[in-house]
Sequence to fold (142 residues):
Amino acid sequence: MNYWLVKSEPDVYGWHHFTQQGIAVWDGVRNYQARNNLNAMRTGDQVLFYHSVTNPAVVGLARVVREAYPDPTVTVEPGKSATWVVVELAPIMKLETPVSLRAIKAEPLLANIGLIKQSRLSVMPIRPNEFEQILRLGTATE
DNA sequence: GCCAACGTTGGC
DNA sequence: GCCAACGTTGGC
Fold:
């Protein structure tokens, strides 16, 4: 089992849209590193759903329900393999408390998380201990 | 709205 | 192959 984080702007496609749809075709990725991460996803992998730009925070948990296949919105020339791919994700649950970027930066155990180290990457791997920490922070304790 | 980070493009 | 210019992402 691997863990990932995907970003989306809530005004464009937020957790709300995701749960309404039930399944998201994760398209629009046009960065090679992010694409490579999509290719490495396996069915059942768990995915943190992050809202960027507006109130940046991890807001929910999802899982991979279909592995990478060619992005249907891109025309692939005959004989060539697709450059861009999509995966399909389904929601598991909303976090009780969103884990803000501020809270992530304040947590020493998350000092090396890709979210901070590579702030512009939109699909990234998350280490198991980082994943646990974020879920812990997302579980209301007060 | 500003700006830092960084990926891409194109001239040479 | 280098690098300047430019565009995009995303935090603040």
